[in-house]
Specification:
Elements lengths: L1 H8 L4 E2 L5 H10 L4 H12 L14 H10 E2 L5 E6 L5 E7 L2 E9 L4 E4 L3 E3 L8 H5 L1 E4 L2 H15 L6 E4 L9 H12 L11 E5 L3 H10 L3 E5 L5 H7 L8 H14 L7 E7 L7 H10 L5 E7 L13 H13 L3 E4 L24 E2 L1
Parallel strand pairs: 1-2, 6-9, 9-10, 10-11, 11-12, 12-13, 13-14
Antiparallel strand pairs: 3-4, 3-15, 4-5, 5-6, 7-8
The protein binds S-adenosyl-L-homocysteine.
Pfam families: Radical_SAM (PF04055), RlmN_N (PF21016)
Main location: cytoplasm
Enzyme class: transferase
Length: 360
């Protein structure tokens, strides 16, 4: 709660969407409200999508006045929408002059919302358009949560069944805000999603995996993308700081405490022609994952402007997958969704100038 108290001292309004529910209670207590008032406000926000204190009919006038003086409920709204021929929807949120993207992916049995955690990304993975764009800043909790609130509003009766942190940015480099957002997503009075329906994808910030391990259990997806450090160093500069061994040992420690990952951690592997897609590479990958319960997700590489990579061919990807399967790994090949609107993995740059856009 320190942050809130400091903000009050500075006479700055607290955005209640930046706080998890324990801190909403503490904040409300600090302005003289009872615990149940905090619960009522949480319900107004998360169950009724009401962000206006005046419309909260069960809150007393006295508390409403104090709320107006000290706080606000401010969402950041979608400004543009694009719909793919496969039903995938991409929304853009403009934050001052910067843009972030949120992608909705409907499937037969589930509908997944892919959310961003940073504006841009600092990791500079060679094969990723977001990485090429550079880093601007971390998203606030309210900006992460707003993506879900806004998507729910847009989708009306369609339920979001899964949330993945696979949009722009490296979620483990915005750890504190991502943890608060995860608490709200998991809380039954928030979005009430089970931990098995939330996935955080990371390039492998090993100490942050250990920190997360102490606080929250959710599905982990590791962007491994290479079967050895030589190849990984070439395509992911972060590997020079956290190499494959350090990441896999942090993952093993996470798995020991995790119920969400009981079918194994997801290993993401982007298929780059002549870089990481040989038969030997598949064998190496199987070898390094021998002791890590894992499901391997092979991702055909999505192209973007000014990049030198070529995606592996389908037949190459199938051969690679079959080697892993023969070695006992549950291996899937990711269907790329929303490519026609640049909403697929690694294509998010906040830039939709070249495409038909609908201003909302
Ligand atoms: N920073 C996080 C989340 C990023 S994006 C991470 O690294 O995991 C989600 C996934 O898309 C990651 O596995 C990322 O490596 C992958 N990806 C990035 N660019 C891609 C591209 N052009 N084609 C296919 N997958 C890509």
């Amino acid at each position: 709660m320190d942050k809130t108290i400091n903000l009050n001292v500075l006479n700055t309004q607290v955005n209640l969407l930046d706080l998890d529910f324990k801190n909403i209670q503490l904040f409300l207590a600090s302005i003289g409200a009872k615990i149940f008032t905090a619960e009522q406000i949480i319900q107004w926000i998360y169950s009724h999508n009401c962000y206006d204190f005046n419309k909260m009919s069960n809150i007393s006038k006295k508390i409403k006045k104090k709320l107006h003086q000290t706080s606000c409920i401010k969402t950041s709204n979608f400004s543009e929408e694009q719909i793919s021929s496969d039903g995938t929807i991409k929304w853009v949120t403009s934050l001052n002059n910067q843009k972030i993207e949120t992608v909705y992916i409907p499937e037969k049995k589930r509908s997944t919302l892919c959310i961003s955690s940073q504006i841009g990304c600092s990791l500079k993975c060679d094969f990723c358009a977001t990485g090429k764009q550079g880093f601007n800043r971390n998203l606030k909790v309210s900006e992460i949560i707003s993506q879900i609130l806004q998507a729910k509003k847009k989708l009306k009766n369609t339920k979001i069944t899964n949330i993945v942190f696979m949009g722009m940015g490296e979620p483990l480099l915005n750890l504190n805000n991502v943890i608060t957002a995860l608490k709200i997503i998991l809380n039954i009075n928030g979005f009430g999603l089970s931990k098995r329906r939330i996935t955080l994808s990371t390039a492998g910030i090993a100490p942050a995996i250990d920190k997360l391990n102490k606080i929250i259990d959710i599905n982990l997806a590791i962007s491994l993308h290479a079967p050895n450090n030589n190849i990984r160093n070439l395509i992911m500069p972060i590997n020079k700081i956290y190499n494959i061994e350090s990441i896999l040992s942090a993952v093993s420690r996470y798995l020991k405490n995790s119920n969400a990952n009981r079918n194994g951690v997801t290993i993401e592997y982007v298929m780059l022609k002549n870089i990481n897609d040989s038969i030997k590479n598949a064998q190496e990958l199987a070898y390094i994952l021998k002791k890590i319960p894992s499901k391997i997700n092979l991702i055909p590489w999505n192209s973007f402007k000014n990049s030198n990579f070529i995606s592996s061919t389908n037949s190459n990807i199938n051969t690679f997958a079959n080697i892993l399967r023969k070695k006992g790994f549950n291996t899937t090949i990711r269907k790329n969704r929303g490519q026609d609107i640049n909403a697929a993995c690694g294509q998010l740059t906040g830039n939709i100038i070249n495409y038909r856009k609908n201003h909302l």
